[in-house]
Amino acid sequence: MSAAAISAGVAKAAGPVQVPVPQLRPDYIPPKPKQAFEKMIDEARLDGKTGFYVVDANSGEVLQEHKAHYGLPPASVVKALTALYAMDVLGGEHRFETKILGTGYLDGDTLNGDLILCGGGDPELTTDGLGDLSKQLVELGVTSITGRLLVWGGSLPFSDRIDRRQPEHVAYNPAISGIMLNRNRIRFEWVRKSGGYDLNLDARSGRYTADVTVAKISAQERMGSVYTYEDLGGTDGWSVAKAALGKGGARWLPTRQPMAYAAEVFRAVADQNGLTLPKAEIVTSLPNDSFIMAKRESPALTKILNDMLKYSYNLTAEAVGMAATAKRLGRPVSFVESAKEMNRWTRERFGVSGIEMRDHSGLGDKSRIAPKSLATLLIDPWSRETLVPLVKLKAIALSNGTVKKWVKTGTLHYASGLAGYLEMPNGRLLSFAIFSVDFDRRTRADLKGSERPPGAKSWAQRARHLQNRLINNWATL
């Protein structure tokens, strides 16, 4: 081969004479434009985390989601889940029973034996209910007993409160036991008199009122805490700062002695009906030879749950949740263990994960629910058919029509939630869950020492405003 041919071949094999110089990546990459709901979240200034999930309740089509897999505190929103749990396990016609048992025998107007107030976990037992039970005994002809007055609350495990981070005096954090009177609250009333105040503690309902001595209260000259509490060996010891009392007023205080409280009130209303009873003793077991002398049934579970969801009663949520677990397991367990059983039920019943509750009421902030998990659970046809009749219908008027809502709200300090069903102006039914929380503010706040930490009210207002804006946005999609 000639030199010219070799030169030509080399030239043909060589690459291009000029190679393009690669362009450097810019130091700044413009972010993607924010969606409308992201701007709403920023404008709410909640800090912390917000997650939501909204889905067509009939087709399962996801309309929008944002951090929907994050487990966040549901607050009282979880009561909707507790209601479903109780309805599935206990049934809507379930009724709690409070009984009066007797031992021995009747001799004329005297019971020769013991009388036992036997709690059945009724969260709606009132002073009137105890009065009616004592009246049943009188109608049997009983006016006295020779034995003891006993009280038993072992149908549910005892706990002196639901959440230990709450202020001592808030009535929504009472004790739990198998017998719960007036939602385990005592009414505190004060009237200003010359030289001080008249303070009174009682258990009142519609027809019966009884003074209470199982709790004591005093007014003190001090700055700082409005209320203080100590256990005086089976008696609730309260004090209140005089400067906070003003001219007069009333409020409910929680009791940490639910069985002693119920026994004292039962003895008082029985006396009003003509039945004299000795001081009560608390027992941990029931005699085998007892017989029923009187009985009171609660309203049906559907009515109890309707009130629970409307007024967000924490005690009711724990009571019905533990009752459902007791039926599933065949034995009562604490509300913490019961909540774990409810978690298992959600996985078995609906096949969803991401629900890790520590109680049935949402009062504690250690519970976690992912918005997607709850909204997915709610689109189950049985969930919708069961829950919608228990929740009050509300409506929002929008420019393009009216949105109907069947929802449960939830609020803790620096935590807020909303979940349920929305019927859009075009008739489309949506299932959704929205949770927001600022863990840093909750950690810094003195939750036990203050009913309303600084900034908590305005934070909650902004959270509710964000929820409404999100719903309005979904109505336009």
User: How much strand content do the residues show?
Assistant: 25-35%
Please state the average pLDDT score.
93
Largest sheet: 6 strands, antiparallel
Helix fraction bin? 25-40%
By CATH, the topology of the largest domain is Beta-lactamase
Largest sheet strand order: 2-1-23-22-21-20
Total number of β-strand segments? 23
The gross shape turns out to be: globular
Please identify the structural class as seen in this structure. Answer: alpha+beta
Level-1 CATH class name of the largest domain = Alpha Beta
Q: Quick one: CATH superfamily of the largest domain?
A: DD-peptidase/beta-lactamase superfamily
CATH architecture label name of the largest domain: 3-Layer(aba) Sandwich
Radius of gyration: 30 Å
How many helical elements? 12
Low-confidence region ranges = 1-16
Total of domains: 2
C-alpha termini separation = 76 Å
